[in-house]
Design goal:
This protein is mainly alpha-helical. It has two domains: 113 residues, Voltage-gated potassium channels. Chain C (Four Helix Bundle (Hemerythrin (Met), subunit A), Up-down Bundle), CATH 1.20.120.350; 156 residues, Orthogonal Bundle (Helix Hairpins), CATH 1.10.287. The chain is 82% helix and 0% strand. The chain is built from twelve helices and no strands. The longest helix has 72 residues. The radius of gyration is 30 Å and the shape is elongated. The relative contact order is 0.06. It holds the Pfam family Ion_trans. This is Ion transporter. Keywords: Membrane, Transmembrane, Transmembrane helix.
Length: 273
């Protein structure tokens, strides 16, 4: 199917590295403007300028989205990142008012357009999404470990240290704090001072929860990232190969057209072979 010349020109424009870097620069500028908008002193002195620059960056986003919709047509809505970009930009046009205050605050999400614009960030996000099934199983394993350990800790140390292990809820919170390493020494001090064998319980819990279960999260994430990088490299190689094929086809078509013109010119001049 033939592509309209205007759409082809728009597609080539948005795929140019210079255009993509320009969009990234505008996103960073918009992020700075959103940050400056939280300072009353800056807004009182330069509020008009900040608002003007903010609307200018929004205009760039609208033009860019419009170009992408025009270039890709209905295929634009098949890409998850495209829909994300459209929604993030559309939020800026939510009318002012108390009922829409939350949506207006969400305009800061325009900064997240870096995730869809920078290829490496898209790869990381895609890798995190693919890890959800594996991480769900590991999270369930960690939850079971926390629950069983909390029940045991409540029965063993509830009387000794009711502040941390008096109830099942307090034990769950305390053991989760131990898992994260946040001031864990003060959490276990009362129990270990009263019971000399308590260190064995907490040591076993830390080894199982932190050094085994949490490292499983890291292993799953690294494996998914490696797999996503390989797929991204394969996709990039296909894009380069397609671009080379398109360029070759264009050159061959130009050569064939040139041959026809030369043949026509020879026939007109009646030049013998």
């Amino acid at each position: 199917m033939d592509v309209h010349p205007a759409r082809e020109a728009a597609r080539r424009l948005i795929e140019r590295p210079a255009f993509q870097w320009f969009v990234i620069a505008v996103i960073l500028l918009n992020a700075a403007i959103l940050g400056l908008g939280t300072y009353e002193r800056w807004m009182s002195e330069y509020g008009t300028l900040i608002n003007v620059v903010g609307w200018c960056t929004l205009a760039v986003f609208v033009v860019e989205i419009a170009l992408r919709i025009f270039a890709e047509g209905w295929r634009f809505w098949r890409g998850g990142w495209n829909v994300f970009d459209f929604v993030v930009v559309a939020i800026a046009f939510v009318p002012s008012g108390s009922a829409s205050g939350v949506l207006r605050v969400l305009r800061v999400l325009r900064v997240l357009r870096l995730l869809s614009t920078v290829r490496s960030m898209r790869t990381v996000v895609a890798a995190l999404v693919t890890t959800i099934p594996g991480m769900s199983s590991i999270a369930l394993l960690l939850l079971i470990l926390l629950y069983v350990s909390a029940v045991v800790a409540t029965q063993l140390f509830g009387t000794t240290d009711p502040e941390h292990f008096g109830t099942l809820g307090q034990s769950l919170l305390s053991l989760f704090q131990v898992t994260t390493g946040d001031d864990w020494a003060n959490v276990v001090r009362a129990a270990t001072e009263e019971h000399t064998w308590a260190w064995a319980f907490f040591l076993a819990f830390v080894v199982l929860s932190t050094y085994i279960v949490l490292n499983l999260f890291i292993a799953v994430a690294v494996e998914a990232l490696d797999r996503e990088v390989e797929e991204d490299n394969a996709e990039l190689a296909e894009e380069v190969e397609q671009a080379v094929d398109d360029s070759t086809a264009t050159i061959l078509a130009a050569i064939a057209d040139l041959k026809q013109q030369v043949a026509a010119l020879e026939a007109r001049l009646e030049v013998p072979d």
